[in-house]
Specification:
- With 705 residues, the chain is an alpha+beta fold.
- Among the domains are: 80 residues, Phosphorylase Kinase, domain 1 (2-Layer Sandwich); 206 residues, Orthogonal Bundle (Transferase(Phosphotransferase), domain 1); 34 residues.
- It is built from 26 helices and 16 strands.
- The longest helix has 60 residues.
- The radius of gyration is 26 Å and the shape is globular.
- The termini are far apart.
- It binds adenosine-5'-triphosphate (ATP).
- Adenosine-5'-triphosphate binds next to strand 1, strand 2, strand 3, strand 5 and helix 3.
- GO terms for molecular function: ATP binding; protein kinase activity; protein serine/threonine kinase activator activity.
- This is Protein kinase domain-containing protein.
- Belongs to the protein kinase superfamily. STE Ser/Thr protein kinase family. STE20 subfamily.
């Protein structure tokens, strides 16, 4: 394809500049041309896709010839990955920019310019019979010259389909829930290029607010809200700053009836776009004060990791660990939680409960329609009924980077091989801007964040993944592994190849997410909430993998989750621990050792309590719904836009929910018993600790006397 070699040795991978549900994107140099390129490495093991399909898709992608669409320069297989070489867009995606510096969205001028270029791309694709299928801020890429290009066309879509034949591939829709048009979620209602117009409208809101509508909800909830709720728009107080043209344009895109949505061609004629500034006048200033993309990515990874740790940390655990740290004289938790929470796309309310609810909803949808969610990214795929896409046959021009810039970069790199990790001229601290103000993340703050992740990641992982005995040793080894990976990743940012483990560990979520995950977040948490966590998947034991029903960022919900507490032989752990504690006391082992040991036990108890609370909450909310509906489950959407087959699904859903409630009730009874026993043991251990301390004090006094 177009003079680019398919020999991996001709490419030198530099840093990671993004990742999605299907792979990781690197900045790289194409050595024969001494040219910067981006390489998206699709992990074929993870995608389980037919390589020929993929190649065909990459071929199609390489035929794209439009200044607003990212094309593939070439593609080839490397071990179990497919590398797709693309022009490098040195300012990354709009989502990146939002996350790093514009958490409340862009100015209307900027939005107008970006959307207009994106719409030109859509017009081009639609004219050639293509549907993009995944229009969102994470797929709108920018470069320093203010070029705006729509990415992720073709290959990604193919990757979501495991069918292995092209025709079926075309019947499979790929998208990210927050951005998906209502008709894509309804059986029997075909969709066409107007689905991209809906996603385009959602993207407009994403650029305006800093996150997509519903982005803080889990994917299944987003699907239901998209069907049931009125279309989102720019109608709130906070939207007063936007022009009526902008509001009107968004409203035109977000009409539930696809036939009433304008085509890309028609939309381009809207006054909002007629008045849009050329990107050179508006977009350039977006990144004027920002550090290079790869440094931003590192900052985002750290932020995502810290956010994840914070948002997933139940208060009881926080207290336990805080107490433990205080006692050890380490008051290291000194960073701004509010600031972290401010990143809307990563904030999740009642995530855990929602995840459990999702499982039930998911079962319903599985019957309702073949559907799968990669909640790492929040990306949903589902079988649908149409997607006409024809081949296009235009040829392409190559993307060039100024020779002087490249030489400068390459020389710099030769002199200082570590320059990828720390750009000369940049302070050691990573800088990012939020809402126009520059925030400096001092090294120490970042280190603290990492420290935080180490500690908190440990607790969270126990809760999410442990399906076997929860033993202190297991906990510690998980934690050490994760800690090792985090540090390794930070230290070896430039060691990209052959570091799969390291690599996977680093995938912070991207829901929305977005989503965050995101949803994709997420995925594109540098993308959903947070979008990725191969490492976590890999860390699941086989049993868990087999039962994986959902992945959320670093965390997953498996069909065993609800059995998790049952699976943990709480009493045996405690009994054993309690016995060993007594033995230790009688054997005269040091107080600090015992304190740590007991604190571990305390933490475990808290975690178990938290799990039980989640189950209780889940049950209570289900019961509340039941009561409020006079013993009936909530009715399914009955809008005129939903066809009759939903009714059949309603009784199925009702049956599944009732089943789930009775399952939960049984579990609750078991768990309540276990909790009571656990509380008793906890109290006994506390008493032993007190007795032991008293004994120690007495001994000391005796010694002094
Ligand atoms: N050509 C490129 N140049 C520079 N950065 C890129 C390029 N392509 C992608 N990126 C960066 O990598 C991020 C992830 O890209 P990717 O296509 O993997 O995301 P995604 O659409 O969220 O995932 P997926 O396609 O797997 O569903 C983008 O949001 C963007 O920031």
């Amino acid at each position: 394809m177009g003079g680019y070699s398919t020999n991996p040795a001709d490419y030198k991978l530099l840093e990671e500049v993004g990742y999605g549900a299907t792979g990781t994107v690197y900045r790289a140099i194409y050595l024969p041309f001494n040219q910067l390129v981006a390489i998206k490495s699709f992990d074929l093991d993870r995608c389980n896709v037919n390589l020929d399909d993929l190649r065909r898709e990459a071929q199609t992608m390489s035929l794209i010839d439009h200044p607003n669409v990212v094309r593939a320069l070439c593609s080839f297989a490397v071990d179990r990955s497919l590398w797709v070489v693309m022009p490098f867009m040195d300012q990354g995606s709009c989502l990146h920019l939002i996350k790093i510096a514009y958490s409340h969205g862009f100015h209307e001028d900027v939005i107008g310019s970006i959307l207009k270029e994106t719409l030109k791309a859509l017009h081009y694709l639609h004219r050639h019979g293509h549907i993009h299928g995944d229009v969102k801020a994470g797929n709108i890429l920018l470069d320093t010259s203010a070029s705006v290009r729509l990415a992720d066309f073709g290959v990604s879509a193919c990757l979501y389909d495991n069918a292995g034949d092209r025709h079926r591939s075309r019947n499979t829709f790929v998208g990210t829930p927050c951005w998906m048009a209502p008709e894509m979620l309804q059986p029997g209602s075909g969709y066409n290029s107007k689905a991209d117009i809906w996603s385009f409208g959602i993207t407009a809101l994403e650029l305006a607010h800093g996150h997509a509508p519903f982005s803080k909800y889990p994917p299944m909830k987003v699907l239901l809200m998209t069907i049931q709720n009125a279309p989102p728009g720019l109608d709130y107080d906070r939207d007063k700053k936007f022009s009526k043209y902008f509001k009107e344009m968004v409203a035109m895109c977000l009409v539930k009836d696809q036939t009433k949505r304008p085509s890309a061609e028609k939309l381009l004629k809207h006054s909002f776009f007629k008045h849009a500034k050329p990107p050179e006048l508006s977009v350039k200033k977006l990144f004027a004060d920002l550090p290079p993309l790869w440094n931003r990515v590192k900052a985002l990874q750290l932020k995502d990791a810290a956010q994840l740790a914070v948002k997933k940390m139940p208060s009881t655990e926080e207290e336990a660990i805080s107490r433990s740290q205080y006692q050890q004289g380490v008051s290291a938790w000194n960073f701004d939680i509010d600031d972290l929470k401010a990143q809307a796309s990563l904030v999740r309310d009642d995530d855990d409960i929602a995840e459990m609810r999702e499982e039930a909803e998911k079962k319903f949808f599985t019957n309702y329609k073949a559907i799968a969610i990669d909640s790492q990214s929040g990306t949903v795929k589902m079988n649908s009924e149409k997607s006409p896409q024809n081949k296009i046959t235009s040829q392409v021009g190559a993307f060039d980077i100024k020779q002087t810039e490249q030489d400068e970069y390459l020389n710099k790199k030769e002199k200082n091989p570590k320059s990828d990790l720390q750009e000369p001229g940049l302070p050691k601290n990573i800088i990012w801007k939020r809402n126009g103000s520059i925030t400096e993340a001092t090294t120490s703050t970042l280190e603290k964040d990492i420290g935080m992740c180490k500690i908190k990641g440990q607790s969270r992982k126990i809760r999410q993944t442990q399906s076997g005995p929860l033993l202190p040793g297991t906990v510690l080894s998980h934690s050490a592994l994760e800690r090792g990976r985090t540090l390794e990743r930070l230290e070896n940012g430039n060691q990209l190849l052959g570091e799969k483990n390291n690599h996977e560990a680093r995938r912070a979520p991207s829901f929305s997410g977005p989503l965050m995950l995101p949803m994709r977040a997420s995925a594109n948490s540098l993308s959903a909430p947070i979008k990725s966590s191969g490492g976590f998947i890999d860390s699941l034991d086989d049993k868990s993998k087999a039962n994986l029903v959902q992945i959320k960022g670093r965390f997953s919900v498996t069909s065993e989750n609800l059995d998790l507490v049952k699976d943990i032989p709480v009493s045996s752990v405690s009994r054993r621990s309690s016995q060993s504690t007594k033995d230790s006391i009688t054997n005269g082992i040091s107080a600090s050792f015992l304190t740590t040991h007991l604190q571990n036990l305390l933490q475990q108890t808290s975690i178990q309590q938290d799990l039980i609370m989640n189950l209780l909450n889940s049950l209570q909310s289900a019961e509340a719904i039941e009561v409020s509906q006079n013993g009936k489950l909530p009715p399914l959407p009955r809008s005129s836009e939903i066809n009759g087959s939903v009714d059949t699904a309603a009784s199925e859903r009702e049956r599944l929910l009732l089943l789930k409630i009775s399952e939960l009730q049984t579990q609750m009874i078991t768990l309540t018993g276990e909790l009571t026993a656990e509380k008793l043991k906890h109290m006994q251990l506390q008493q032993q600790l007190i007795l032991y301390s008293q004994e120690q004090n007495r001994d000391k006094r005796d010694e002094v006397a």
